[in-house]
Amino acid sequence: MEPREDDNSRHWTEPGVYSVAPGVYRIPLPLPHDALRAVNIYAITSGDSLVLIDSGWALDEAHQQLEAALRGLGAGLADVSQFLITHVHRDHYTLAVALRRKFGGRIALGMLEEPSLKITADPSSRPMAAQVRLLREAGGEAVVEALTRVFGDRRPATDESYWEDPDEWLTPGRRTVHVGRELDVVHTPGHTAGHVVFADDAAGLLFSGDHVLPHITPSIGFQPAPSQLPLRDYLGSLRLVRAMPDRRLLPAHGPVSPSVHARVDELLAHHEQRLTEIGETVAGGAATAYESALRLTWTRRQHALADLDAFNQMLAVLETAAHLDLLVLQGKLAAIKTEGVRHYTLP
User: Fold this and answer.
1) Quick count: other Cβ atoms within 10 Å of Cβ 343?
2) 227-265, pLDDT tens digit by residue?
3) What span, in angstroms and rounded, lies between the C-alpha atoms of 18 and 251?
4) SS3 sequence of 83-108
5) What is the domain range of residue 18?
6) Does residue 270 lie within any of the structural domains?
């Protein structure tokens, strides 16, 4: 598998190893579902050492494709000295754990991911327990029932745990990756509480994980240990990145794009529009996040909530709740909890 220039002549999900900048390569690895077909892993090499930004999902096919891609760089899986992980979601973290068990290599993860990692690693924890609680608070009992039909209420017996602790908990600051190459670790909460991005000043690159994606808006706050106001955190993180020098965008999902700033501006505008739309649903009579989500459309295809699968209905309702709670913080709505359900009204 020989390296190719990453010139957007191929779909970004097509397997291979693509040169992004001197010593930096994008490696798309497969995911086991259709919504997001691949995740981008980035290899940073000096010739003497090899570091990966994110790792992929612990799947046999992903393992094999990563091995073939690294072979094209004249390296092997045992040559990976560090995995720098943007956040603790399965498609970014678990292959690093599987490879560490076999080959070594150190894993570094944002320190504010620790609470969610601990919950996920607990074999007695129920899948999406926090999301079920939040859905009930949002008035979304119908979505809870749909989730239970699809996923059950227990972890599958065949679900081998890859939720081991990292070797290092990352904190913001500059770190040397190779001689002559440094990255700035920047804490960008919102998608998850401990999400980080990695900025390469010298090369003008931002390894953005799921914080800034070129074609989709990342989910907000999907984690076992929920944040109180994930949308507030996310918008603050977007503004933080917008205040940094503009760089090429190296996302976890989607093609490399020329400008971080351009995409951040689009995401900020999208959420501003969404706040207006969601506020209007309350003015029109919606009282809960579930009722509000029913009055909105979802994805670029403008689907109704009922047209989404159970997992994406859950994400939609909880993101609606995140917008409503931010409107309450801004004084544009009021909220009161009655019999365990949060109701919203005009102030």
Assistant:
1) 17
2) 999 999 999 999 999 999 999 999 999 999 999 999 999
3) 14
4) EEECCCCHHHHHHHHHHHHHHCCEEE
5) 4-123+162-259
6) no
What pTM, to 2 d.p., does this model score? Answer: 0.95
Residue with tokens 């909530």: 305
Number of structural domains (the chain) is 2
Q: 3-state DSSP helix/strand/coil percent for the chain, to nearest 5?
A: 35, 25, 40
Same domain? For 183 and 332 the reply is no
- 184 touches 127 (CB < 8 A): no
Q: How many residues in the chain?
A: 347
Mean pLDDT of the chain: 94
Q: What is the dihedral of CA 251, 254, 258, 259, to 10 degrees?
A: -60
Q: How far apart are CA 1 and CA 14, in angstroms?
A: 12
Same domain (yes/no): 16, 103: yes
Local structure of residue 125 (DSSP, 8 states): P
* 214 and 317 housed in the same domain: no
Same domain, 31 and 147: no
